[in-house]
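Sample entry (238 residues):
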Amino acid sequence: MHTEKVDYSDGDTVLEAYVAWDDSMSGPRPAVMIAHDWTGRRDFATSKADEMAKLGYVGFALDMYGKGVYGSDGDVEGNSTLMNPLAGDRAALRARMNAALDTVRGLDVTDNSRVGAMGYCFGGMCVLELARAGGDVGGVISIHGIFSPGDVPNETVTARILCLHGQDDPMVPPEQVLDFENEMTAAGADWQMHAYGGTMHAFTNPSANDPAFGAVYNPVADRRSTQAIENFWAEVFE
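Predicted structure, serialized as tokens:
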């Protein structure tokens, strides 16, 4: 497997992506962008890029915060300080996602006609916002992501959408799920919602073990969601 870091920019902000692909394969192949959680583009996001590379795709772990800018596990205040400026400014968030999309499309190894995006927690918000912005991607997957919209009007939603959600996620209450489903239905989007019972936030992250905060790893939901991710990309990129 080939891996490398790629610098790119959004305005004056320098960003750093982690890119992985199977170099035993030849020619361009589909690319999957991975949007990180609120701690930044750390090992969890890069491991997901590696997983996409093993499936035969370009795995592109994008950067929402800036080169060398990271939060840390358990630092609610610090992570919130990094996330909130973008969560509260969806136009800026959309611009940053589009900067990543332009970069992955510029890679020689990418098939520009087959690009998707998936994101975890805050990253789920990011990929859903890319879809709301009319991003030219085949599909997006939100994994224990945040569904609430911002105050920027939606463009025509063309991406297929898959949401993998823990039913007991305290950060995404049932009314937010219903509002999102109604929003996507009104938009005429091709959407799916997979809700896992008895499952909290961050259910795919083995280091998540904070029931009081509402973030707990669930190996069964992790396994089921992994299969759903593979099936979705196989359909989108067929």
